[in-house]
Design a protein that fits this description.
Blueprint: E1 5-6, H1 7-14, E2 17-19, E3 25-26, E4 28-30, E5 40-43, H2 56-61, E6 66-70, E7 84-87, H3 90-104, E8 108-113, H4 118-129, E9 135-137, H5 147-153, E10 161-165, H6 174-181, E11 185-188, H7 202-209, E12 221-225, H8 231-240, E13 245-250, E14 257-264, E15 269-275, E16 283-289, H9 294-309, H10 314-320, E17 332-338, E18 341-348, H11 354-365, E19 375-380, H12 389-394, H13 397-402, E20 407-411, H14 416-421, E21 427-431, H15 434-444, E22 450-454, H16 462-471
């Protein structure tokens, strides 16, 4: 059994006091009794709606090796006989442990932020770097004030690479997180109008994302999207933060990692990339990207840049891109058995903003349909756009038309703006909620259709994906990850 932390190191790092008969150490870190593995340390974090201390008994039953609990809650836990580390504040103790994990790490570390593509890029980096060494990366979208320190605390001391996703929806949220992570490469995927309801302008979003530069290690590199209109602003902000090395990726001829050519196919893409500027010469790499879509080509370009900057073997990295696949809710593709033929389902249900909607509709446009089939766009509200919401939803209309969609199904009050903007001869239906839309979708489906489902997570269109998978099971051996 490999210990992640000895008990002595755990006590020292958290600044707590041990109570009970402590084990030699723990094999993992958990904040959820439902997913806790035997031997984990359970941190009883108090969240907005739940208090981890209420689940301490469940954690012990699941096999927790140590409980990390608040001094104020200790009396209420008096009946538990499990070993504990008692601290003033459990989340602060987790942050301290994360900081200690970073201090002992020898890994090359990449931090990823941006308005779109954070998780997909993080997962792609996990995938390709696994071909050249041991990799530690965030689970799911663990990119907030508890997700980042939790990911740090789980980082083995001997991994070769580590990849952290850092998110925000308000100014000031990235700064404390990146100062814990202290990356060697800080990557910003793209600045787009996500969470625009919390900002006065796109420049303010860029300024909030630029906080990631403040945690860069000395000599670290800022990696920026040269095709982003706000690259110059980000470069300026990076310099102001003391960053001396800036690299870029994109189609722009001045990019350090330049996309020379790409070809988009239904289930993959190919790309030719030049590494190095015109002055420095450089090498050209041709790669196959296993996940389709122009946005995945852009993500892969960023991945190649970050991997190169941390010294990875680029021949292995480019080969690994060939079997890259998308995550559930972020482009995962299923081939379903309908009584009258196959249906292709593209699951983009995890989140949505104008930039990711554009990418998803482009992916649908490039998805072929069988004879008699249609492209079906199932779209839900994009949230957190504030006063810009009506205009940005209506602006999706040309993208829907360009995607050659035969049926549009909409859910949510904000999608009414899109419904009004779509051509009158297009088959469109709108319902208030995902539950109300579900029977309409299931009745409308026919063999040969290609269906793309996309919305902000809060609208709940993921339940439509689940229902389609239940009603029309994926054909054996044909389910794919787009």
């Amino acid at each position: 059994m490999t210990l992640l932390w000895t008990s002595d190191a755990l006590v020292e790092a958290t600044g707590g006091r041990p109570v009970g008969n402590m084990p030699a150490g723990v094999t993992g870190i958990s904040i959820d009794s439902r997913s806790l593995q035997p031997g984990d340390a359970f941190f009883a974090i108090k969240g907005e709606t739940m208090d981890g201390h209420d689940f301490a008994t469940a954690a012990v039953r699941a096999g927790a090796g140590v409980l990390v609990v608040s001094e104020a809650k200790l009396a209420a836990l008096g009946r538990l006989t499990a070993p504990m580390i008692v601290v003033p504040d459990v989340l602060a103790a987790l942050e301290r442990l994360g900081t200690a994990a970073r201090a002992r790490a020898a890994a090359r570390i990449i931090a990823v932020t941006g308005s779109v593509g954070k998780t997909s890029t993080k997962e792609a980096l996990r995938h390709v770097l696994s071909a050249v060494g041991t990799v530690h990366a965030s689970d799911k979208s663990f990119n907030n004030h508890w997700g980042v320190p939790l990911t740090l605390a789980r980082m083995p001391a001997d991994c070769d690479y580590a990849v952290f996703e850092i998110g925000m929806n308000h100014p000031g949220e990235i700064r404390p997180l990146v100062r814990m992570v202290r990356p060697h490469v800080a990557l910003i995927t793209l600045i787009a109008p996500a969470h625009l309801g919390f900002f006065r302008s796109m420049d303010e979003i860029a300024e909030a994302k630029a906080e990631i530069f403040e945690g860069l290690e000395p000599g670290g590199v800022a990696l920026l999207n040269r095709d982003d209109p706000r690259t110059k602003l980000l470069e300026k902000l990076a310099r102001q933060a003391g960053v001396e090395r800036i690299a870029t990726f994109g189609e722009n001829p001045r990019s350090t990692y330049r996309l020379l050519d790409s070809a988009l196919h239904a289930d993959h893409s190919t790309m030719a990339v030049k590494i190095g500027t015109a002055k420095s010469g450089g090498e050209e790499i041709v790669a196959r990207v296993g996940a389709p879509g122009r946005h995945m080509v852009q993500n892969a370009l960023a991945v190649m840049g970050a991997a190169h900057l941390v010294g990875a073997d680029m021949a292995r990295v480019s080969l690994a891109l060939g079997d890259l696949s998308a995550e559930a809710g972020r482009g995962r593709r299923h081939v379903l058995a309908h009584p009258h033929g196959q249906i292709v389902l593209i699951d983009e249900s995890y989140n949505a903003n104008p930039a990711s909607m554009k990418a998803a509709l482009s992916l649908l446009r490039n998805t072929p349909v069988a004879e008699g089939g249609r492209r079906v766009a199932v779209l839900g509200d994009m949230l957190e756009l504030g006063v810009h919401s009506e205009k940005l939803h209506a602006a999706l209309a040309p993208l829907v038309v360009d995607a050659d969609v035969g049926l549009v199904l909409l859910a949510g009050p904000h999608m009414a703006s899109l419904a009004k903007a779509l051509p009158s001869d297009l088959d469109v239906a709108i319902r208030a909620t995902a539950d109300e839309l579900k029977p309409l979708l299931l009745q409308a489906l026919r063999g040969g259709d290609a269906v793309m489902i996309k919305s902000s997570k809060g609208i709940g269109l993921a339940k439509l994906v689940d229902e389609m998978l239940r009603k029309f099971p994926a054909q054996a051996g044909t389910a794919q990850q787009a």
